[in-house]
From TrEMBL:
SMART domains: Resolvase
Domain Resolvase/invertase-type recombinase catalytic: 5-147
Protein name: Recombinase family protein
PANTHER family to which the protein is assigned, alphabetical: DNA RECOMBINASE-RELATED, DNA-INVERTASE FROM LAMBDOID PROPHAGE
Domain of life per record: Bacteria
Residue ranges of every copy of the Recombinase domain listed in the record: 155-293
Gene Ontology MF terms in the entry: DNA binding; DNA strand exchange activity
InterPro entries per UniProt: DNA_bind_recomb_sf, DNA_bind_recombinase_dom, Resolv_N, Resolvase-like_N_sf, SSR_resolvase
């Protein structure tokens, strides 16, 4: 009588990753030895769900390859094979087709009790899997409602702290400083996300992924900052200290994140805010305003100071900068493409770029240099949410004050905090009362801000003030030197002027004209 052969299979679920498979394999080997079976192979799957398909498991693929050459397939228990009736039935069908038998070392499934009991037990295994899934889901909902970090890396700017079942967010000051710097430069200094991403890489600031590795003592990979990386870090509601989840029907990502709300409709917070409501709302508004055609390739906006501001007087089309340098000197020009070559529809229109830049800058600062910057503030309910936060902080501090000596140092500090929060509450009440957007101060004089910015930021200032530089072609036979009379600089006025009623706008336009030299 020939010796029966058997292949042993064991699967280790993610849910029980701390459990070693050795004792189960030993039990299978003992079971086979008692029956005189020869173990020809041991196949294992680690961190593989019992609901996954047979062909998606490396170890199970080894078992399937052995089926035609063995008499039995052996596992410690039925749930090691699968937690799905469908997948276990597929395994039984494959074994039947190769004249092999599926058994378990605990004796629940053996050659005598047939497939009926096997399917019955598999149904119970699937039921148990559903119960485990339900318990995990309920547990996550419980911890989420408490404002606990649910695992994985905390958002950029934070670090997770605390025991396993009570993890919270603490501010990672190194990363939070980068967030605050970038937000300020985008809102108040006209910086672009693309330019900031390049600068952060040039400065050697670790990307979010590398920062986490460096903080945890792991080897960094030298990844760069990308536009989308920085945009996502600035856009997410997590910067308000809120737990986030994807909007229903959307893939998870910073652009689809929304705050997790509690039973009262308030954001669930596992940690403090990095940006206050006004700053966060403002930076999102700027990012949204520059997000035309998100997700598609867009032509580069270039770095010329007067891009989309220099216009051709012949065709009213935009003029583009052609860069040219001779012996270290800049001879770049603004050129109208509709006046070039045989296909041109009007006279050539070319002008020295540096001279036009200087002329427009001088006239712009003469008119607007003493003005103060403004930005559009769009109400989005964040003031109401922040108002509830401030009220909660006041109540908590008031409770703490009851335990302290008001004349003591700690008591005085709490009183100062309460006073500051009460002032903030008054400001937020006013903010919440505004049902419509409005223009608010955004910094100091334009002339000061101009000096702070690069060409990209200055171009944004020019555009905000409705600047148009209309350039006429040179007169035939005229000297080649720059002729300022070819350039007409017009200011339609800042947007908060252009949106006034026509009568007011006309009066302001007259005033601007009178201010021009």
């Amino acid at each position: 009588m020939s010796t029966k052969s058997v292949v042993i299979y064991d699967r280790l679920s993610r849910l029980f990753a701390e459990e070693a498979p050795d004792h189960r394999i030993a039990a299978c080997k003992a079971y086979a030895a008692q029956r005189g079976w020869k173990v020809v192979h041991v196949a294992t799957d680690t961190n593989v769900s019992g609901a996954s398909k047979l062909e998606d498991r490396p170890g199970m693929r080894e078992v399937l390859a052995w089926l035609p050459r063995v008499d039995y397939v052996l596992a410690a228990k039925l749930d090691r094979y699968a937690r799905s009736v469908l997948e276990f039935s597929r395994l039984l069908d494959a074994a039947k087709a190769t004249a092999s038998v599926v058994v378990t070392a605990d004796g629940m499934v053996n050659p005598e009790n047939g497939s009926f009991l096997a399917n019955l037990l598999a149904s119970f295994a699937e039921y148990e899997r559903d119960m485990i899934k339900a318990r995990i889901t309920a547990s996550k909902e419980h911890f989420r409602s408490r404002g606990n970090h649910l695992g994985g890396l905390a958002p950029y700017g934070y670090v997770s702290t605390g025991p396993v079942n009570d993890k919270r967010w603490a501010i990672d000051e190194t990363a939070a400083a980068i967030i605050r710097e970038c937000a300020d430069r985008i809102i108040h200094h006209g910086a672009s996300v693309a330019g900031l991403a390049q600068e952060l890489t040039a400065r050697g600031i670790p990307s979010p992924a590398d920062h986490a590795r460096q903080r945890d003592g792991r080897k960094v990979r030298g990844t760069k900052w990308h536009t989308t990386t920085l945009r996502d870090a600035l856009y997410t509601p997590a910067l308000r200290g809120w737990l986030v989840q994807a909007k229903p029907g959307c893939k998870r990502g910073a652009l689809t994140h929304q705050a997790v709300l509690d039973a009262e409709g308030l954001p669930v917070s596992p940690g403090p805010a990095i940006l206050d409501a006004q700053t966060w709302t403002s930076v999102r508004a700027v990012l949204d305003s520059k997000a035309k055609g998100r997700g598609v390739d867009r032509p580069s906006r270039g770095k010329a100071l007067l891009l989309h501001i220099a216009r051709c007087a012949e065709c009213s089309g935009p003029m583009y900068k052609q860069r040219r340098s001779v012996n270290g000197k800049d001879y770049s020009t603004y050129v109208c493409p509709k006046g070039v070559g045989k296909a041109g529809i009007h006279r050539p229109n070319v002008v020295l770029a540096s001279s036009v830049d200087e002329l427009v800058t001088r006239r712009y600062l003469t008119v607007f240099g003493a003005s103060y910057l403004k930005r559009w503030s769009e109400p989005d309910g964040s003031a109401v949410l922040q108002l509830s936060e401030v009220r909660g902080q006041i109540d908590r501090l008031a409770g703490s004050l009851a335990q302290l000596d008001p004349s003591g140092r700690a008591g005085q500090l709490v009183i100062q905090q309460i006073t500051a929060l009460e002032q903030r509450e008054i400001e937020l009440r006013k903010e919440a009362d505004h049902a419509e957007g409005r223009w608010v101060d955004a910094g100091g004089p334009v002339s000061v801000e101009w000096e702070r910015r690069d060409d990209e930021g200055r171009r944004a200032l020019l555009a905000d003030m409705g600047t148009v530089a209309e350039i006429r072609p040179a007169t035939p036979g005229a000297p080649k030197r720059f002729d300022a009379s070819r350039v007409t600089v017009r200011f339609d006025g800042p947007e908060w002027v252009r949106e006034n009623d026509p009568a007011t706008a006309e009066l302001m336009a007259i005033e601007l004209d009178e201010m021009e030299p």
